[in-house]
Amino acid sequence: MVPSTYDGVAAVLAVLALLTEFAMLRAPMLRSQVRLYAFQSLVVTGLAAYVAASRHIDELYVLAALSLVLKVVIVPALILRLLRDADTDLAGSSVLGVASAILIALVVAAFGFFAVGSMHVNSSSLPTSSLAIACAIVLVAFVLIILRSDVVSQAIGFFSLENGVSVASLVVASGLPLIVDIAFLFDLLVAVVVFGVIMRVHHARNATLSTSDFDRLRG
Amino acid sequence: MSTLVIMLVCLPFATALVTWVAPVRFSQYLTMIVATATFSVALILLPRTSHEIVTAGSPLRVDALSQVFLLVVTFLYMTTSIFAKGYLSLGEGAKAHRYGRRFYAGFNLFCWTLIVVPLVNGLALLWVAIEITTVISALLVAIDDTEGASEAAWKYVLLASLGLGIALFGTIMMYYAGTRLHGASYSLSYTTLLSGAAHYDPKVVRFAFGLAVLGYGTKMGLFPVHTWLPDAHSEAPTPVSALLSGALLAVSFYAILRFFQIAVLSLGPSFPRSVLLIFGVATLLLAALYLLSQRDMKRLLAYSSVEHMGILAIGMSFSATIAVVGVLLQVLAHAAAKSTAFFGVGSVVRKFGTKDMTKIRGGVGALPWSGPMLVLAVLALSAMPPFGIFRSEFDIVYGGLSQPRDVIVAIFVVLVIVAFFGLSWFTTETMLSEDPSASLFSGGVIVVNKGEVSNWIVASMIVGLVALLILGVHPPTPLVHLLDRAAAELRGSR
């Protein structure tokens, strides 16, 4: 079966989002990580606009506009401001070297891609290969969160995981009622605020963004 | 009836707004009054929802299953508001006032989100409501602003959000499963999903169910994604710990049950049951072992919550109806028992100034009312008759034996006994051993005078124990009908 243009473009954008996720994994500085997140959100916004245009779902334009404002502008700006105020250890902290981290992420991404692929979810109208890529994005986000030990990288990891879920939702559930999509985005904003509050509290208390002293509670 | 449902949604939210600006003393009484009113409304709804579905517009829908969880949440709202009045010793001054305002606004808002979870109609709104419970409770965990609290809050908000990210993926996959039947655009309401579930693509439903159990299981405290739970429970203010344990874990279980309901219709019962069985046994095993090595009183109760969540998951894996009825009764009884135990621990912590069980001796002597009641609550948690958990676990075991799944039931009983041992050993050690010199750790024991911390705490514990007795000795007939109907809903009838 020859993939349609729609399939192709959706898959290209999804792969672009996945590559950005890999770039986040290798970016040493926290600032560049935030910028990469903004770029990834832009790609996801582009995907939303493209799906809206090619499948004539006007509601998705509203979603694209909202996600442009929230995920490309407001969320990165909030985190960058936090970083400016914190003014400490701007280099992220990885438990592993870049090469090992990328290798692990490759294995995990391949696992996600082929695991979803092996479900043989075939559909004439939906680009299922993009679904597999979305799954890979989610898994690589997990690798990012596990390997980094500072609150900013972990938060960014969560937000980019949400981007991965957005890709999945755009390709397989583009008809989801708009109100639901808006509720999801609103929730993300609330989550960002709460993450921000707790990051600030942590920084004010310990003068660091690292999570390495989070070892008091155990057992 | 639909007016009552709308009242349930509006009242606590309005209270949260008022308590944000009102004086703290006023907020304390207002919260108690509103919470009691909310529980009364839930009770008024009970006879109706036990034989029909009450709706209020398309976003709100109360069936028997929702009603069970609504009772849990509103009951805890009421008892915890009474307990909080006694537990928070707010001094004078601007700082105490600010803390009190934040606490009460957060408390009411948290209860509001917990009430909304069982009321909303549809998997998407369910996800949104549960996500809001996470963000608000994370702030409440962090409210004490200690080092432990900020560590616990960070772990909680990160792990729970990741879990909910997975649950959102599961929700989207469930939507995708329905697109073949309902067309590209439809609402994720339960009515639609339950009517069409039998024709969904089973591969996709299986994937969605797995993601949902893992995702919502993170908030429910299933192994291996329970790790935030003991930290958050031990570092949060005690009223919040009680709500987290009795209500938040329960509503997360409710979310899993909704997916379970759809998965059973689509896949047949064997796959969803096996998934829950695996998670349940692993969770129960872990919790039973960890219960043997705790020193912190609140962590002990937190692991007991993990244990009970494992029991719920195992109970759902049995096919007999009586086991499912037992699971739902267990949700109610666990909420009452665990909150009462947390109230008692709150009293002990306020009295002795520590959570470390090696430093607390002779609790029953020091606290003439809340001390013995804490021991009773812990015995109730360990499924001693005549309390509610005895009846519910008996139902679950009976259901398992009638299937028959003897091996699972045997493992279940052994692990519950191990957990009982851990839980009661430490409690009797701290509460009943009178003479500090008889203890191994007598050096560090804190000596206190006799006398209760607060009568409000005693009152909240009496309410909890009375509820446990009613559930154990003779559950009221409307409640029995409700549980039967909810169990029938879970088994695929509509």
Overview of the molecule:
Chain A is mostly helical. Helices cover 76% and strands 0% of the residues of chain A. Chain A contains 7 helices and no strands. Chain A starts with a helix and ends in a 13-residue tail after the last helix. Chain B has 3 domains: 1-119; 123-129 and 142-268, no CATH class; 278-494, no CATH class. Chain B contains 19 helices and 2 strands. In chain B, strand 1 (54-56) and strand 2 form a beta hairpin. In chain B, helix 8 packs antiparallel against helix 10 (238-267) and helix 15 packs antiparallel against helix 17. Chain B starts with a helix and ends with a helix. In chain B, 63% of the residues are buried. Chains A and B meet through helix 5, helix 6 and helix 7 of A and helix 5, helix 6, helix 8 and helix 9 of B.
Distance between the termini of chain A: 54 Å
* Average residue-wise pLDDT of chain B: 89
* Order of H and E elements of chain B: HHEEHHHHHHHHHHHHHHHHH
Q: In what range is the share of β-strand residues of chain A?
A: under 5%
Structural class of chain A: mainly alpha
The helical percent of chain B reads: over 70%
Shape of chain A: globular
Mean pLDDT level of chain A: 83
Number of strand segments of chain B: 2
Quaternary form: heterodimer
User: What is the strand content of chain B?
Assistant: under 5%
The secondary-structure class of chain B comes to mainly alpha
* Total count of helical runs of at least 4 residues of chain A: 7
Which strand order spans the largest sheet of chain B, edge to edge or round the barrel?
A: 1-2
- Greatest contact between two chains: A-B, 46 and 52 residues
Uncertain regions spanning at least 5 consecutive residues of chain B? none
Distance between the termini of chain B: 20 Å
The geometry of chain B reads as: globular
